[in-house]
User: Fold these one by one.
Assistant:
Number 1:
Amino acid sequence: MAGIFISFEGIDGAGKSTHIERLARCFAAQGRAVTLSREPGGTDLAERLRSMLLNDPMDPITEALLAFAARRDHLTQVIVPALQRGEVVLCDRFTDATFAYQGGGRGVDWDMLQTLERWVQSAGPLVQPDLTLWFDLPTSVAAGRLLGARVPDKFESQPEAFFDAVSQGYARRCAEGAGRFARIDADQAADRVWDGVLDAVRRRGFLT
Ligand code: TMP
């Protein structure tokens, strides 16, 4: 596919959002069409599934299935068509979040998630991001940033131990897919974090 697919990952409070928008402006300034999206979400159906996943009590496997159902719709309706048009797709979270949150945080079997990943992302070759920017920071720092930010959803209101397990899930995914990942130290001033983002994107030749 002609486009570029970049995902943004990290525990809640890691501070991805401003960098996603800034990177979108950089690509647009170089004349690239950019599709900005998020998971769970990105289509009407996936946004409805997101609302259930973030608000309704359910068991961890149901969470994983809803996340992958939303992903399938998002991939077929938005991501794959945009990549085929040659666009840059910037996605706030993707499959690594399911491994981190449902696998690491909730304890869903890793092999089961890998099977779901293959089913859901193989409409042709396995669709994976070309680059995943993992905003890594200590859970205590992230918890401090989240304090009073807004009414917390089901995940944001979890204790720090949950986010420690989520971080371990991200670390495992990073080790398993090392070439695709760039770990960004998110426990720095925003401008330094941005330097890390730009460096990772430039090193792969996606921006000049
Ligand atoms: P966010 O868009 O504010 O990051 O919120 C999405 C929340 O959903 C976040 O807490 C992570 C969680 N999540 C999962 O639990 N599983 C998933 O597969 C994805 C994509 C997100």
Number 2:
Amino acid sequence: MTLLFNPLPPVLAPTSDGHEFPVRRLFCIGRNYAAHAREMGKDPDREPPFYFTKWAETVVPTGSTIAYPPLTQNYQFEAEMVVAIGKGGRNIPREAALEYVYGYATGLDMTRRDLQFEARDKGRPWSAGKNFEQASPLGLIHPVSEVGHLSSGSIRLTVNGEVRQDADLAELLWPVEDIIAHISQAYRLEAGDLIYTGTPAGVGAVASGDKITVSVAGLSDTRVTIGSPANA
Ligand code: MN
């Protein structure tokens, strides 16, 4: 038996201490900051956490220029803190959840907002709005041994140096341990999974040439430039 074509190599995310983290799956939390839920037209009042997924291959490293994607006139940034899962488990109790974290990173959940809203309002899946090439820029992963666990601290995003999102991780409606406990009831979490924990208020559109920086206190930045439209 021979392979019909070459399979994709694994997506490797660099860590701050010189290792490579093999990325398995991306889980993204929706409406995890109250002010952002409101700006999306929703009531955040203790809605249970919900998530959507993205392909591992949507991850691109900090420093990338990412193509302006097709089919959108409203391509938006979402600054997020990202949890890198270091070991697998199902039905993980909240009290043990942080033992499953390898480390933390900054990241972007780039979104074709017009397609997401069209799907949302028609009761369709969000995939076209969320899961497309280069949609998940990621900063260096910092191991817990270096930065500890992140439950508070500044999260902010600038476009061309202007502050557009500015919040604190303490505002997360569902903090990391709750998210891990909840997701692991639905799926067996595995080493290599990334959890994008949701974005604060202030999301907005970008254009080709814009430079985005995501900062979270204690972590290194994610920086991307919006390039020309994808054409290949
Ligand atoms: Mn998001």
